[in-house]
What does this fold into?
Amino acid sequence: MQQVEDAGAGDLSRADVAGLQIWLTKHSDVARNIASQCKEAMKADTAWKNSAEGRICIAEKDAGYSN
It folds into this structure.
């Protein structure tokens, strides 16, 4: 999450998946860097999916950078 904020994504606590997906598509280097972290962090519970980290990882996956 910090890496994405540091790269200029802004306040992730208010970002939605669609907006993050667009941002990650424009910043593919960041998306590739977080892909493995997201793959390890993916959890099935709803609370995680609604967290800032969860939204980033879902957006990263939807943007097509996960293997």
Remarks:
- Helices lie at 2-9, 17-26, 28-41, 46-49, 52-62.
